[in-house]
Design brief:
elongated; alpha+beta; 38 helices
């Protein structure tokens, strides 16, 4: 079965081809209820529609009267045609960016400040939201549940039964059988619809969370963080590397802006955006550089909005478990269909044989027709019970439950498959900064002018007097100009630092030693900016000085910047050549800072010849070293314990960082990642290793420092392919996208992560905390095991119900379980069973067992042992009751058959009730641990028992049952209970894990 499933029902956790997704759908072509089976799977036709939709041509223009009346000079359609059509002629006609800003009543420096006009602005230009599909009502789910093919056939049987029954026996006696089936069908439909409706509400909530994106905006003269949904045309947005462009707009100012438009146009080549090509399209990503942009078109008026509206209905790719279980359901369904046909044939043959014997084969009465109909209903109901339609849906139920709970634990799941894949993970490759550490950085040490000093707010005033003025001026100029951050005045009139934690730490340091950000920025003019990226590990700017001349500043990884320097500022402020002693002193300082777990940055500058053009790259050598700073980034509380939990769960944690190797090793030891047997390696060394060396090296690597995104990608690829590991990778930057994509599970940081990283990730860690990653792994394991429990429980019911009815029909000529009874059993095992077993919360023991890994088979030997052992017990008991039941209970007379069949039905149901409890643990004997904490389980079990009592005692005419005596009730429950010690004994039989 496993090889058949892998061949025909195998999909990757992510990135499966459309052809593979189409193939398994064809194999599941004939299903009981396609509406329900394929609900939480991708809508391929919608995807094809979206792929065909790309660019719209610009339209002609005339300013409508209502736009003028509202106080604006340009309409939304015209703005859309300018930006979408990249129409430079129209842009020029409207007075370029400044002209359009005027027509939109906005300022390119202060942004929108006309609060009174906001309402009119929304009316004229719309809001920045995409149209969403309406939430389907509960009745649509009821209608979908009614589409089930077998239920439709049963409804038809009920109708015929009603007509024939009333015609032969009159009302109400003749209607009991038919009404019984109708009531059962309605019960099944309403329980199914309620379960599905609740799931859809959960997915809707999660969908809203996925779309929460904040962006830096200047409005009312202040720079502030704002939701992209609050953006209006005329807003001034600040974009940096990794941001997603939130609306269509025009470039105002910025440096080296490269835009990836592949999500919109399919073109992989990035587009340069500048004054000559100022068009920015919603949904595209900033690959490099930073800029200010003015919003022109929002929401559904943008091309991205129209595209998203189409894709909303494309759905999420189905998960490997869903597809595998669809395969299991299809195989069992075919077996069930075969048994049903044979059962029907045997029962009908029995009827014919009886009529031949009585010589009445030419005389047919209404009773004979009803008997034939009952046989047909039994055959159809065997198919209902045999097809485990609940299997794929149990996955969805369990995943939806886990996703909702994980959301409370600060993990947002973007792709369903990530939940189940995370449960099999064997390796986590984690970033250092912000994941293992708090990301609250402060400069605590510095080595300026070759002298090491501690930096404290208390000694900041002495700091300025101890350093020569010329060096201090250069240091402040370097920090304030060569930065991706900003110091702004907020609404309260206080200074506020914006930017990444590293930038903020440096800006804070410069303010502490007496720097003035605004005056420093106004005195020099930026000619060129090369933003920091994790490949070059440096950032550089070129300034035009007030007294004339050009100066380049750079900062970055200490050893890399130091290698580009040939001079240094001495303690007296003079510039001296960098000799061997000075280099040694600086390298010792760097290593000393790093061994104290400090991040080190080197700052340097050089005077640039006047021939420099902004098109040229900033020089990379000939610099003068200003100094080195040591930045403290404390380890997060709880990380050491989380790493220990991972180790006990068989998950290896590796640290992959761009930081200095000494800093990385110090923090890895503090977290418990680096052990005595492990290796710490630098990216450049790793790159030079041959394939054979990597084979021996990779299993021992615990820390990789100074790594480039490509090193991370190579490590992940090797772990997945060569070592067959299931790899989870954390990332926050744009350059992490390839590794996140390559990994089995990509984990992006919710706070520090860029939009590009989040887009490539499967799970977003909302609090950037490593401990949350461990929680995700725990929930992943919980999902996997819960579904295994449910499959074990359901396959047991399937096998017993099939064999009992089939063998009984073949040997005695009648089926002990009627259509109504089988429908009730089907509901116990399908919807209610899934609810009870698929929503078990995780326990601590989950992280003490080894991971499933990539090759673990889903239906394990342990499960087969439990299924076959329990099925054999139930079959023997029911068969014995059928053969000897009358003698045991001294039943005779006309109602004896009905009482015996009721006993068999009651015993069978109680076998399932106790088997459900036994299924809570597949290998452990204690199945009652934590049972009362799971309210859903207790509620499902209680309602099953109460309803069973009602069916047997009060609904006899509909369900073909007869009230039982106390002794008979006791025996039925005892037979069911006996399944528990048998299940416990089975668990003592040793079997291999695969």
């Amino acid at each position: 079965m496993e090889s058949y499933l892998n061949e025909n029902f195998g999909v990757k956790p992510k990135g499966s081809s459309e052809e593979v997704l189409q193939r398994w759908r064809k194999l599941c072509g004939v299903v009981k209820n396609p509406k329900r089976r394929f609900r939480f799977t991708a809508n391929l036709s919608k995807r094809y529609e979206a792929a065909a939709m790309r660019r719209v041509s610009p339209s002609d223009y005339a300013v409508p009267e209502e736009v003028k009346a509202a106080g604006f000079q340009i309409c939304a359609d015209e703005l859309g045609s300018i930006v979408e059509g990249h129409d430079l002629k129209k842009l020029k006609f409207h007075g370029s960016v400044a002209g359009i800003a005027e027509k939109l009543s906005t300022s390119t420096s202060n942004g929108l400040n006309d609060t009174d006009l906001f309402k009119k602005r929304k009316e004229i230009y719309g809001i920045n939201k995409f149209s969403e599909t309406q939430l389907r009502s509960f009745w649509i789910f009821v209608w979908e549940a009614l589409q089930d093919m077998t239920l439709i056939i049963l409804a038809f049987c009920a109708l015929v039964s009603l007509i024939v029954g009333i015609a032969t026996e009159g009302w109400p006696k003749g209607a009991h059988d038919g009404l019984g089936i109708v009531a059962s069908i309605l019960l099944v439909v309403f329980v199914t619809a309620t379960s599905d409706y609740r799931q859809s509400l959960q997915f809707k909530d999660l969908d809203k969370e996925k779309k929460k994106i904040a962006i830096q905006v200047t409005r009312n003269g202040y720079r502030q963080k704002m939701s992209i949904y609050d953006l209006l045309p005329g807003d001034i947005v600040h974009l940096g590397i990794g941001d997603q462009v939130p609306a269509d707009g025009l470039f105002i100012s910025g440096f080296s802006v490269l835009i990836d438009e592949s999500s919109l146009t399919g073109e992989s080549e990035p587009v340069m955006v500048n004054i000559e090509n100022p068009f920015l399209l919603s949904g595209t990503k900033v690959q490099d550089g930073s800029c200010k942009m003015m919003v022109t078109t929002v929401g559904m008026k943008t091309q991205w909005g129209k595209l998203m509206a189409t894709l909303v209905e494309g759905g999420d790719d189905e998960t490997p478990l869903q597809v595998k279980l669809n395969g299991v359901a299809t195989i069992i369904g075919k077996i069930g269909l075969f048994f049903a046909i044979v059962t029907f044939a045997v029962l009908v043959q029995g009827l014919f044989a009886r009529k031949l014997k009585d010589n009445t084969h030419w005389i047919w009465s209404g009773d004979d027709a009803l008997e034939m109909l009952e046989y047909f209903a039994v055959a159809v109901t065997i198919v209902v019970v045999a097809v485990p339609e609940g299997l794929p849906l149990a996955v969805t139920l369990s995943l939806a439950f886990a996703m909702k709970k994980m959301m409370n634990d600060k993990a947002l799941v973007r792709h369903l498959a990530a939940c189940e894949t995370m449960g099999s993970s064997t390796t986590i490759c984690s970033d250092k900064t912000g994941t293992l550490t708090t990301n609250h950085m402060t400069v605590v040490k510095s080595c300026i002018c070759m002298t090491v000093r501690e930096v404290k707010p208390s000694n900041a005033s002495n700091f300025g007097s101890e350093i020569p003025q010329s060096a201090l001026k250069l240091l402040v100029q370097s920090i304030f100009n060569n930065t991706g951050g900003e110091v702004v005045i907020n609404k309260e009139g206080k200074l506020e630092i914006l930017g990444t934690p590293t930038e903020s730490a440096l800006l804070d340091f410069a303010l502490l030693i007496g720097g003035d950000f605004q005056s420093e920025r106004q005195s020099a003019k930026l000619v060129k900016v090369e933003p920091f990226n994790s490949v070059k590990k440096r950032m550089g700017v070129v300034l035009e000085l007030p007294e004339g001349g050009l100066r380049a500043h750079c900062k970055g990884a200490s050893e890399i910047i130091l290698a580009n320097c040939d001079k240094v500022i001495a303690s007296n402020g003079e510039i001296v050549p960098l000799d061997e002693d000075s280099i040694k002193h600086l390298n010792v300082t760097i290593n000393q800072f790093a061994s104290e777990a400090l991040r080190t940055l080197c700052l340097a500058y050089m005077e640039v010849e006047n021939g420099f053009s902004p098109e040229n790259p900033i020089p990379v050598s000939g610099y003068t070293c200003i100094g080195i700073v040591g930045i403290k980034d404390p380890v997060r509380p709880g990380v050491k314990e989380s790493v220990a939990i991972c180790r006990s769960a068989g998950i290896t944690v590796r640290m992959v960082t761009g930081d200095n190797i000494h800093t990385a090793k110090a923090i890895a030891r503090e977290c418990g990642i680096l052990t005595d047997e492990g290796i710490a390696i630098e990216g450049p060394d790793f790159r030079e290793k041959s394939e054979e060396e990597l084979q021996k090296l990779i299993p021992k690597i615990q820390v990789m420092a100074r790594s480039s995104p490509l090193d991370k990608h190579t490590l992940v690829k090797h772990l997945r392919t060569t070592f067959d590991e299931v790899v989870a990778v954390t990332g926050d930057g744009t350059n992490d996208a390839p590794a996140l994509h390559e990994a089995d599970i990509g984990l992006a940081m919710g706070i520090a992560g860029t939009e590009v990283a989040k887009e490539s990730a499967d799970v977003i860690i909302l609090d950037d905390n490593f401990s949350t990653i461990v929680t995700v792994a725990k929930w992943g394991r919980s999902v996997y095991i819960n579904i295994q429990k449910f499959v074990q429980f359901q396959l047991t019911v399937n096998i017993v119900a099939l064999i009992v009815n089939f063998s009984s029909a073949c040997l005695t000529g009648n089926a002990p379980l009627t259509a109504v009874q089988l429908l009730w059993v089907n509901m116990i095992m399908d919807t209610l069973g899934a609810l009870a077993l698929a929503t078990e919360p995780p326990n601590e023991d989950l992280m003490k067992r080894s991971p499933v890994g990539r090759r673990g088979s889903f239906i394990s030997n342990v499960m087969w042992r439990n299924i076959l052992g329990q099925s054999l017990y139930q079959f023997i008991v029911i068969w014995y009751l059928q053969a000897e039941g009358k003698a045991i209970f001294h039943l005779d007379g006309p109602g004896s058959d009905l009482i015996l069949n009721t006993l068999i039905f009651n015993s069978f149901v109680f076998c399932q009730v106790f088997n459900e409890i036994s299924s809570r643990e597949m290998e452990k004997l204690d199945v009652f641990k934590g049972i009362l904490e799971n309210y859903v389980f207790v509620a499902v079990l209680s309602s099953t028992v109460i309803f069973q009592i009602i069916i047997v005692e009060f609904l006899g005419t509909f369900a073909n049952t007869s009230p039982l005596t106390l002794a008979q009730w006791f025996l039925s429950i005892f037979i069911g209970f006996l399944g528990m010690p048998i299940a416990a004994a089975l668990k003592l039989i040793p079997v291999g894990s695969t």
